[in-house]
Amino acid sequence: MAMPQADERESAGRQIFASACPYPPCSTVEEVLPPKASDFALKFEFECEGCRRPRVFLYEKGRVVKESEPRVYGYCSEMRAEGGVSAEIADLLSAATDYLHRGATRGAAVLVRVGAELFLAHQILRDPTDDQSLDRFKPMIDRVRAGEGVMATEVRDRICDYLGNIMALGDTAAHPRIYPQNRQRPFTTGNVLEDLDHLEEIVRLTTGWGRAE
Ligand SMILES: [Zn+2]
User: What is the pLDDT of residue 96?
Assistant: First the structure.
């Protein structure tokens, strides 16, 4: 996603950094003043007045340098349009990317896992009983590996591997002593981003929707 151009000016010797909200379709413009005189590089954030999502700015040597670009989950609008469980999944993944943008990777990891589990039950296995009780992520992956669910044969193993990683990511974030070793996946920013990419790929491969932006 291309970031909107920022606009900078000075007032009484003080920088004013104006930029438009990066979450479409919001685009609320905020004028940001450097938070304080400091040589430290730091990030600061606030909630957008328009859409209430987190906006993060980078600050260095007394100036706002730029607005940090958020990772947005690509199928929110399609899922919200479907309503019901799909809209619930969109809300979970939107909250996950908001956490990630704030640097709260642990919370993001848990929400990506829950969103993927709900998608597996609702969209891949199309089993309404699984929507009600989500304590069967691993057995559901095993069912897909054994041939259930809607997808082309050649992508089945790849989807199951992705889902296994996403499950381990969220489980490790929620249960730091989880065992054995192969159930652990560190909730680093890189791993959360990779699993979000994979979840979008799973959605694309099982719904027929176009590639996420
Ligand atoms: Zn906004």
Answer: 98
pTM confidence score: 0.89
How far, in Å, is the centroid of ligand 1 from the Cα of 188? 26
Would 52 be classed as within a structural domain?
yes
Residues 16 and 110 in one domain: no
Burial class (CB in 10 A: 0-12, 13-18, 19+), 27: middle
Residues (pLDDT < 50) of the chain are none
Specify the pLDDT at position 8.
86
Same structural domain for residues 101 and 198? yes
- ∠ CA 35-38-41, rounded to 5°: 85
In total, how many domains does the chain have? 2
Q: Which residues fall inside 5 Å of ion ligand 1, going by CB?
A: 21, 23, 26, 28, 48, 50-51
Q: What single-letter DSSP state applies at residue 102? A: T
Q: β-strand 7-11 against 42-47: which pairing, if any?
A: unpaired
Residues spanned by the domain of 116: 76-207
Is 1 contained in some domain? no
